[in-house]
């Protein structure tokens, strides 16, 4: 009988792994270092070794494991990864290679998508089947899940929500992707600081945020909660852009819930409140009332949960 799942979140410095039962309860979390030397050619061997050792420890047979799910930091198509700069990888057939090393079925997706799936299965989106997930970190990532299926699109760019253009994109900041005015340039942690610094330069209002050499997004949200005028303006701008993009997404795939994770979301319900405020302003009436806004709950474990969910669906 299939009783167990393995979820693997492969990052540039470490690999997080989780042993789960098929209901989604974590039995053990563990991690290994990501060895990126020699083009990262031992990474999958190291992961297979860690899983097989863990199975030994728990006296688990291969026929009791439904599968291994793995999230990788790069675009994935049919189990094949096409260039992961962080790992030193070119084209790697993760599914075939890891299956050969473990003799267990493997399912592969990218890291932003598995985080969204994790939140859908056991986190802020638990109980729903249609979710849109934003990771608000150094950059902005995303995942679009429709009826429990990740939307990858024609070349894996489905869910790249950080590069959705904001309303005044022509006047926006330059993005790493080469366009200007991507959501990421104003709604990531660095984007929020960038917007706040511009407001501090443009406006004369007194602010506790002035003359801070290392302004952070957390400080901006903390100051907004204290009523700081500039910080409040920065938060409104954040909510306006994110709320606008959510209103466009809402008439595209009509999700039940938007979930917000990543470091920025630690600011709490100020995030969901301000996004929802602008969403209600822009959204079509049929989606305005039914769409829910929630914070992610799994933190850094979202990836292993989502990877385990991939393994469950094998
Ligand atoms: Zn961009």
Short description:
This protein is of the alpha/beta class.
List the helices and strands and how they pair.
Layout: E1 4-10, E2 14-21, E3 26-33, H1 43-57, E4 65-72, E5 76-77, E6 80-84, E7 89-93, H2 94-102, E8 106-110, H3 111-122, E9 131-136, E10 140-146, E11 149-150, H4 184-187, H5 189-202, H6 217-225, H7 229-253, E12 257-261, H8 269-282, H9 285-288, E13 292-295, H10 302-312
Parallel strand pairs: 1-4, 4-8, 9-12, 12-13
Antiparallel strand pairs: 1-2, 2-3, 5-6, 6-7, 9-10, 10-11
Helix pairs in contact: 1-2, 3-10, 5-7, 6-7, 7-8
The protein binds zinc ion (ZN).
Enzyme class: transferase
Pfam families: ROK
GO molecular function: ATP binding; glucokinase activity
Gyration radius (Cα, Å) is 20 Å
* CATH overall fold name of the largest domain: Nucleotidyltransferase, domain 5
**End-to-end distance, in Å?**
14 Å
Number of domains: 2
Average pLDDT metric: 95
| Largest sheet: number of strands, sense, barrel closure | 5 strands, mixed
Number of discrete helical segments: 10
Instruction: Classify the secondary structure makeup into a structural class.
Output: alpha/beta
In total, the number of strands is 13
- Per CATH, the class of the largest domain reads Alpha Beta
Q: Give the amount of beta strand, in percent.
A: 15-25%
Which bin fits the share of residues in helices? 25-40%
Series of secondary-structure elements, N-terminal to C-terminal: EEEHEEEEHEHEEEHHHHEHHEH
CATH architectural type of the largest domain: 2-Layer Sandwich
The order of strands across the largest sheet is 3-2-1-4-8
Morphology: globular
CATH-defined superfamily of the largest domain: ATPase, nucleotide binding domain
Q: Are any ligands bound, and if so which?
A: zinc ion
Q: Give the low-pLDDT segments.
A: none
Enzyme class: transferase
GO biological process, one term: glycolytic process
InterPro entries: ATPase_NBD, ROK, ROK_cs, ROK_glcA
Family: Belongs to the ROK (NagC/XylR) family.
